[in-house]
Please model this.
Amino acid sequence: MDTHGHTKQRLLDTAIQLIWEQSYGAVSVDHICERAGAQKGSFYHFFPSKSELAVAALEAHWQQRQPEMDRIFTPETPPLERLARYCASVYRRQKAKRMEFGRVCGCAFTCLGLELSTQDEAVRHKSQQIIERICRYLETAVRDAAGAGLIARQDFPVMARELYRCIIGVLVQAKIENDLEVIRQLKPSIWRLIGAHPPVAR
Amino acid sequence: MDTHGHTKQRLLDTAIQLIWEQSYGAVSVDHICERAGAQKGSFYHFFPSKSELAVAALEAHWQQRQPEMDRIFTPETPPLERLARYCASVYRRQKAKRMEFGRVCGCAFTCLGLELSTQDEAVRHKSQQIIERICRYLETAVRDAAGAGLIARQDFPVMARELYRCIIGVLVQAKIENDLEVIRQLKPSIWRLIGAHPPVAR
DNA sequence: CACGCACTTGACCGTTCAGTCAACTCCGGT
DNA sequence: ACCGGAGTTGACTGAACGGTCAAGTGCGTG
Model:
């Protein structure tokens, strides 16, 4: 039972954790409350519905990740090195989660977004919004890479989305196969897509 | 209410349809029975549990698709043309589904696999199995392309999985953004990954 | 000290869930 | 004509679901 922090934050943290490990449909409000050490009335004091909790949890989860994204994608790092570090951080995060939970869990944004996007417009929209935020980091990196003459392509927004799809694909496959090794293929795939010289082995 | 065919097949068809459009967690056995025009007792006569229905529905859905896959990937078609036709068929299928349901639904195998893979080993395994079957078509195509001197890479199984991840990524993004246009990017991405000459515009 | 409000409590609601069951119908084989 | 088994029916179960509520508690402010 999570007892750190205030109730609302505990509910958000617990929700994203359980939904990430299981799924929106498999996690009940009762489960979340129990694991967060809160009562149901408190839950509905902070969130009008389970669905709105999901939206808030997505946003909260992103807020937790953003500092690391800023660190990885700092302009002080050479652009291709940023991408390489991001690939490494994806692997590291998935490995850490598997250590904690015992299974590969993939990307929480994508899993939740995919599960609910045909049923819940608010969740779909928040999920899309977070994708856009991630793409912005990628776009800046490839734009800087082109500026430095490291890559030839100039269609930066398209490229960024292409790279993000590649990351999604890797994380989906890693979760379905419950295997981290797929993630090692992320960097070479990205290098091929951007048309950079083949990466040196990590 | 679906009244064609025998009860078991109707249950399978209805199940995959509803799960594809919504999600495993959002679709109840009652819904499936109602839409299939069957009684609950009949459901549990054919399937021991909702989870085992999901596995059977994945397999049945694949069986329905296989003939088209065989047609697209026939060795009589030039290898890169096979890939191009597959990209086109992915777009066509998603467009048709959106026409019918009103939203982009993505890939049923992936959606169901992703939702349940941490909770239901049988579903995860079936989903993985179907991925492998699709990869086999892709692998033969790229092997033949290399044999014809159209591409340089020789790591065919790795390539096939790389291409499949690219397709997954596109379909996930198309569903989350509820937009078919992303799928148009599939072919150029695949061409970049295999290192073929840029495709002519479709 | 007293007021008000944010937050908490735990019982409660009606509905829906997956799954069960005994009785029944129908049909092919003998 | 009879039998047995596959398939069907619809009522049923107990648990779990999302959500509500009236009655509290406790704390910061005046």
